[in-house]
């Protein structure tokens, strides 16, 4: 690394030109400047450029420049640019490494809560559909020839309708539609952020990622979050297929989340084994 630039030691073929300068030792300084100016005007631009290179190289040959000054950025091996060498300080420590498992544990519980809110909002809609179907089964009220209704105890169907109506009123007070939408938005934002952050933290600590069940399941969960959220516009328009697919994707998401927990715990143990505070 302490050697000089190799191209400086290469032989340079002198440029042959037709112009001849007089003996500079016999001229005064103004005459020398004038003679060189006249000679330069006779030369082609390519010849002038070549002379400039020769003169510059001549001066560089006389001064031993360390090779590292010019070649260091190009001689660095790819592995020298990797992380996990202490370059990132606290970002490689145990504190930030534990943020991911703690955050994902919270997001798992929040996923269950968002699912509960979604199920309650679904009950609001399905209850109304059930009421409408029951109303079709109610028999007309008996009337007298004068057109007066004959009093009679409510039928079981009417009792069921009244019960479902009261239940739906209670559900509507819970504002489950808005709560589910807000929970899903928060889950999507923080979920994607923490999924990417977890992979980035692993790279900061180790300099690489580890393809395996935990990484692949995490990627799958992130994709399912995004696809389920993309179905919301169609769901808001009353598309039942989109609603059913939304529920199915989130069910798979929860199952993947549960399956990922054991491998996540193993990684936490490795964090305590190979990292230090902070």
Automatic annotation (TrEMBL):
Classification via InterPro entries: DUF4079
Sections of the chain in a coiled coil: none
Stretches that traverse the bilayer: 98-119, 181-203, 215-235, 247-269
Keyword Transcription regulation attached: no
Annotated PANTHER family: OS02G0122500 PROTEIN, PTHR34679
The protein's name in its UniProt record: Uncharacterized protein
Keyword Transmembrane helix among record annotations: yes
Origin superkingdom: Eukaryota
Keyword annotations from UniProtKB, A to Z: Membrane, Transmembrane, Transmembrane helix
GO CC annotation terms, alphabetical: chloroplast thylakoid
